[in-house]
Amino acid sequence: MREEIRILSPTAILGYGFPQSSFDQGMKHKPDVIAVDAGSSDPGPYYLGAGKSFTDAQAVKRDLRIMLKAGIKEKIPVIIGTAGGSGANSHVDWCLEIIRDIAQEEDLHFKMAVIGAEIDQKFLRKQLDQGTISALDPGQPLTEEQLAATTRVVAQMGTEPIINALNNQADVILAGRAYDPAVFAALPMIQGFDPGLALHLGKILECAAIAAIPGSGSDCMFGILRQDSFSIFPLNPERKCTVTSVAAHTLYEKTNPYILPGPGGVLDLKECHFSQENENTVRVTGSRFITAEKYTLKLEGAKVVGYRALSIAGARDPVFISQLDTIIKGVEDRLCDNFKEVDPQSYQLMFHIYGRDGVMGDLEPTPEIKSHEIGIIIEVVADTQEMANTLISFARSTILHYGYTGRIATAGNLAFPYSPSDLQGGPVYEFSVYHLLQVEDPAELFPISWEEI
Questions:
Q1: Contact 164, 443 (CB under 8 A)
Q2: Are 315 and 412 in contact (CB under 8 A)?
Q3: 89-122 burial string, b = 16+ CB within 10 Å, else e?
Q4: Distance between CA atoms of 71 and 69, rounded to whole angstroms?
Q5: What is d(CA 315, CA 358) in angstroms, rounded to the nearest whole number?
Q6: What is the pLDDT along the chain (453 residues), one digit of tens a residue?
Q7: Contact by Cβ (8 Å): 22, 8
Q8: Are 149 and 302 spatial neighbours (Cβ–Cβ below 8 Å)?
Q9: What are the residues facing 427 on neighbouring strands?
């Protein structure tokens, strides 16, 4: 059995970039695998629902070119998870075309596995009838109506499909939606390393140098996994890992600091211990993986809920600012009166006030406006783009010329940074499927196709 396995994580998300010097330093440490997470649900449901990437094609191509050239040259597997940002078929195909372009331009030759993660709705309706789909707390049970309205659904694969691809000698693996640590943990698990340590290391590596000080998602990180521990360090001399930075990142995006759920079980970190190995390296022990009685996969799906129009403006008049809530209420009343024939359930009118509570909304603990100026985003979401455009135009012009007590400048209450002042946002999506699916075979929903590049 091997004593250690070495993993290079170039960037937090493919397309976020990394210094060439950091990557070169990582290659000097002779990695056994180059792995990268290419997506996230953090940017919201639009990108999954619309089938588009939230990362730029040229930025992704730049990162991939460096990774593929190094991996193919040194015969190191290159593994990409959650391709195209959301990991549905359209996202995988988008990233696949980029890889083909790079291979042609650089004259690269390799065996590639492409792993799909989009789930057929007929299959899901059958599973819904059989009761194998359950709510993910604090969500509600999935309904047939929700599922029917959903544009596309992906399942978050674990390590098993990636392991299958590696066992069949894939040089490059392009995977759809994947559990973030899976691309880092798959090769170690083939080689018999502890799954708890492998997944915990993957949990940190998937965000690359964010777990360092100063943290950055656009820089490289390196992990060394052993039978009883792992060590992690940044590849840029300007950064270092500390016990605090690595332990803090272990808690990143988690509701429970000790139990981290994932496909097929949970990471149990109750006995986890962090120690400073040297000035820039942290060593971790005690991570355990507890297998669940039933293997479940997280499902993600999005549906269209309307169409958006926006208007962005600023205000600096202290009298206007002091009466803002009254003015907004007046605008809302006038809009309702002017469009009595429009069903109130068919649209939403929202005012986002930056300088008061634009970031946290009702959770803002200090909602009093103390600044000399505020930013106002007027937003309408309606059943059609045409209706959203109409309502935003009315709301914008009404607040622009709204008469309030003490007003001096009647030419207009707002300053607009853009012309046109009204912006069409297009379709608006929300997560309509965010549930768990029980499966017998962890790999059965993730077909692998092969391509000789």
A1: yes
A2: no
A3: bbbbebbbebbeebbeeeebebebbbbbbbbebe
A4: 6
A5: 14
A6: 789 999 999 999 999 999 999 999 999 999 999 999 999 999 999 999 999 999 999 999 999 999 999 999 999 999 999 999 999 999 999 999 999 999 999 999 999 999 999 999 999 999 999 999 999 988 899 999 999 999 999 999 999 999 999 999 999 999 999 999 999 999 999 999 999 999 999 999 999 999 999 999 999 999 999 999 999 999 999 999 999 999 999 888 888 889 999 999 999 999 999 999 999 999 999 999 999 999 999 999 999 999 999 999 999 999 999 999 999 999 999 999 999 999 999 999 999 999 999 999 999 999 899 899 999 999 999 999 999 999 999 999 999 999 999 999 889 999 999 999 999 999 999 999 999 999 999 999 999 999 999
A7: no
A8: no
A9: 307
Could you tell me which residues are beta bridge partners of residue 226?
A: 4
Q: Could you tell me which of 299, 272, 266 has the C-alpha nearest to residue 287?
A: 272
- The first and second tokens of residue 419, run together, are 């012309």
362 C-beta neighbours (distance < 10 Å), count: 6
CA torsion through residues 81, 83, 87, 89, sign: negative
Instruction: Give CA–CA dist 179/203, Å, rounded.
Output: 9
Confirm if 99 and 72 have CB atoms less than 8 A apart. no
* Residue 197 DSSP SS3: helix
Global pTM reads 0.94
Q: What angle do helix axes 57-74 and 20-28 make, rounded to 10 degrees? A: 20
Amino acid identity, position 110:
F
Q: Which residues neighbour 142 within 8 Å (Cβ) at sequence distance 6 or greater?
A: 128, 133, 135, 433, 435
Q: How far apart are CA 224 and CA 8, in angstroms?
A: 9
d(CA 86, CA 44): 10
Query: Distances from the Cα of 233 to the Cαs of 20, 101, 230, 285, 319, in angstroms?
Result: 17, 33, 10, 15, 54
CA 86 to chain centre: 7
Q: Which residues, at least 6 apart from 122, have a Cβ–Cβ distance to it below 8 Å?
A: none
Tell me the H-state helices in 181-268.
182-190, 195-205, 243-250
Q: Is residue 221 within 8 Å of residue 205, measured between CB atoms? A: yes
Q: Count CB neighbours of 441 within 10 A.
A: 9
What is the b/e burial string over 389-416, where b = at least 16 CB atoms within 10 angstroms of the residue's CB?
Answer: bbbbebbbebbbebeeeeeeeeeebbee
